[in-house]
Design brief:
The protein is an alpha+beta fold. It is built from six helices and 25 strands.
Amino acid sequence: MKIICSKDELLKGIQIAQLAISSKTNLPILANFLLETHKDKIKMAATDLEIGIKCYIKGEIVKKGSISVPARKFIDIVKELPEDETHINVKDNQISITNGKAKFSITGLSSEEFPVLPEFTQKEYIEINAALLKEMIQKTVFAVSRDESRYVLNGIYFMIEENRMKMVATDGRRLCFITKEISNLIAKKEKIEIIVPSKALNELKNLLNTVADEKEKKIKMAISENQIIFKIDETILISRLIEGRFPNYEQVIPSSSKMKVKINVQQLFKSTRRVAVLTNERSNSVKYILDNNKIKILANTVGLGEAEDEINIDYDKEQMEIAYNPNYVMDILKNIDTQEIYLELNEPLSPGVIKPVENKEYLCVIMPMKI
């Protein structure tokens, strides 16, 4: 194989493909990029067997071929190259990299050892705005469970039907739900229900950060029996799906509330963060007391100290005390894009609901802690 490529194009490919490189693996091939000629372009790919990413960059194909390149060393070399053309020549798994007077030689592995990643050849697919999908991921993925024994909660539940998409994530202590109506989302009428691993969606979100005009960009999604494929321009991300049945999330969302309080997002976030300074891992709860048009935020940790803050609100009902993990509250508030939220409550040990004001498409349920 012999190719000529600019440093900028190589860096662009590296930036995308390295999202799928595994930092811990017993298989040497998974620590490598696949570098391969594909028609008049150069394909770069990586996988950790859970997700796979491949992209196509511009370059001159002098001689067709493929090689598996040690990812970390290749990244280090390309970053240090001058801005001239880069010539890459492969012979017997030996990779020669030349740019101006700089020359490198590293040993690769046969491309035949590299796992096969599927192409995006599906005739039926879902098309969605990139910025919209990124928003839906960002507003739910933080609530995914990290407990591997609860594997069905290690991903986001997608429900797609006609022109509506819903996404739900929960770790058993909090739940985030978002729904969006999207014109001409899918041609087929049958309902799609899948669980996509959070790792794939986090990497997809990272990938979308590299898209300059994401507000106008469209993403194609193709779903098979056990895989989902996302295609953005010349980049493809492949992920396995999580097998199993997602819990009935609708049972967790309270159907009504006794109290509904409007609170400024930034005031609540800053007060919670302030008070949470005097919590620790063993005593990680903050108390919220609603009374007499105020909400007091308190923390009391044995051996550490006490903290208190206060926010003015419109509340004239009986006193209500409830405690939450402050990190859960702040995670939710960081992803609210309105100035105010509604806090909906029933009893001190009943789930609370946080909703953006004037936005019925997003809500979060948070389980209280014992006071």
